[in-house]
Amino acid sequence: MSKYLIAGNWKMNTNADETRKLVSELSASASKNQEVEMLVCPPFINIPGASELLKDSFVSLGAQNCYFEEKGAFTGEISIPMLKAFNLEYIIIGHSERRAYFNESDDLIAKKLEAILNHNLKPILCIGETLEERNAGKTFEVLKNQLDIDLSKADLLKISDMVIAYEPVWAIGTGVSATNEQVAEAHKWIREYLENNYKTEAAKIKILYGGSLNHANAKEILAIPNVDGGLIGGASLKSESFLKIYNTAIELS
């Protein structure tokens, strides 16, 4: 198992040409490294093209969302079997933007996580508190409630395939990252939660930090105990900045 996972969440960015260009640049520079895994998650429509370009590379492929049913009358949704056809390994679920803009509940996220694990893919479960919740001293109450529900349907035999991304909502896309102390405190709490609930499997679960992680602060953040990588938004849209974060992880490993 690699020490770090450096994941790019491209959100609703990049057209087909931009995807091909970015994927080509990343795959040309990413080396075979046992300690650091690079992952890109383009928009659904660009996954086929990315998959074709990445089939012989060391860059992993993921999706930004999915639905838990395999097929049916769910207009506009994408199923896990549809995504598996393109040889991806990861699916992001529970991102704060999905929770806030599309009213996704923890009950729905739990069904998605269960389905992803049952299809032998790796869910990247996003959790995190708002600024109001942090200021009210409810950070760990919020994280516990999210994890309790989101993991309630998970197959315990497959739980080690999961990745958790701690993303304080107030730091996403704002340019304001949590302090090193805040990151350390949250990741330590999440690790202890996993150890208390999943015993030996807990050590295999990666905990990523997301929230304005960039090449300038990557070295400090990735060096924090219990930080096993990053889920990166804006800085993953340019190969130069994303590769700097990736290479920083290689240096630290």
Give a written overview of the molecule:
- This protein has 253 residues and is α/β, with parallel strands linked by helices.
- It has a single domain (4-252), classed as Alpha-Beta Barrel (TIM Barrel).
- Helices cover 40% and strands 15% of the residues.
- The chain is built from ten helices and eight strands.
- It has helices at residues 16-29, 47-54, 80-84, 96-101, 106-118, 131-135, 139-150, 180-198, 218-222, 239-252; strands spanning 4-9, 36-41, 59-63, 90-93, 122-127, 163-166, 206-209, 229-232.
- An eight-stranded parallel sheet has the order 7-6-5-4-3-2-1-8.
- Strand 6 (163-166), helix 8 (180-198) and strand 7 (206-209) form a beta-alpha-beta unit.
- Helix 1 (16-29) runs parallel beside helix 2 and helix 7 packs parallel to helix 8 (180-198).
- The two termini are 12 Å apart.
Specify the helix fraction band.
25-40%
Shape: globular
Q: Determine the mean pLDDT.
A: 95
CATH architecture assignment name: Alpha-Beta Barrel
Highest-level CATH class: Alpha Beta
- CATH homologous superfamily placement: Aldolase class I
The order of strands across the largest sheet is: 7-6-5-4-3-2-1-8
What is the count of β-strands?
Answer: 8
Q: Which class do the helix and strand fractions yield? A: alpha/beta
Order of helices and strands: EHEHEHEHHEHHEHEHEH
Which ranges are low-confidence, i.e. pLDDT below 50, for 5 or more consecutive residues? none
Head-to-tail CA distance between termini: 12 Å
